[in-house]
Specification:
The chain is of the alpha+beta class. The protein has two domains: 30 residues; 176 residues, Sandwich (Immunoglobulin-like). The chain has three helices and 13 strands, in the order H-E-E-E-E-E-E-E-E-E-E-E-H-E-E-H. Strands 1, 2, 3, 6, 7, 9, 12 and 13 form an eight-stranded antiparallel β-sheet that branches. Strands 4, 5, 8, 10 and 11 form a five-stranded antiparallel β-sheet that branches.
Length: 207
């Protein structure tokens, strides 16, 4: 067999190996679900309530969810766990979206990622979690369709000062934590916002 034929066979074999590896990485590999550093985290009252309802605490964050493989990931549910010292509370009602919210109806996440707002509300029988001074830990969990149970995607450490906790005693007060990439830390500020009229699509999302 001529040398050129051996070279051709070698090139063909190498191309086959490259094609196989590419197919594995893009089509066959399951990959993993990942989450970027949330750009903003919010603790405060849920705006989607009626006038006669008591404000209910929620955790809000904005982040990018993405898949490490081209196949993508299908999320069945998400929730957050908020901890202060020995006090823990799960916020298990998941509502996501930007212009239009959807209540935890599942979400497919591809390699390009999905950036949107995530609202985590207390269940009806959930305990009242007060925002007192101290260190807080937010753990974000997600359950994919293929998983047996939820897995932790992120852990965020935050802090509420004495003066901020005093401001948060007002019914319509909430605290924002904005991520500063230059200092790699969150900067907190309290805002007071009166709830506006509840749009019909929000009532559908939280019903």
């Amino acid at each position: 067999m001529a040398m050129t034929e051996w070279v051709a066979i070698g090139i063909s074999g190498f191309a086959l190996v490259v094609s196989s590896v590419t197919a594995w990485l893009t089509l066959l590999q399951t990959g993993d679900l990942r989450m970027t550093q949330p750009t903003v985290v919010f603790f405060g009252p849920d705006g989607g309530r009626r006038d006669d309802e008591k404000p209910r605490l929620k955790v809000f964050l904005r982040t990018l969810l993405y898949s490490t493989s081209r196949r993508g990931q299908t999320i069945e549910s998400m929730h957050v766990n908020l901890q202060r010292a020995e006090s823990r509370q799960n916020f298990s009602i998941w509502v996501y979206g930007d212009d239009r919210l959807a209540r935890r109806s599942g979400l497919h996440v591809g390699a390009d990622g999905v950036a949107c707002n995530h609202h985590f509300l207390l269940p009806e029988d959930g305990a009242d979690f007060r925002l007192l001074p101290g260190q807080y830990t937010v753990r974000v969990f997600a359950k994919r369709v293929a998983d047996r149970g939820p897995r932790q995607l992120a852990l965020v450490a935050l802090s509420i000062s004495e003066s901020q906790a005093k401001e948060l005693e007002q019914d319509d007060a909430g605290i924002y934590f904005d991520w500063g990439p230059d200092q790699e830390a969150y900067h907190a500020h309290v805002e007071i916002r009166k709830p506006g009229p509840i749009p019909p699509w929000l009532l559908e999302a939280t019903a």
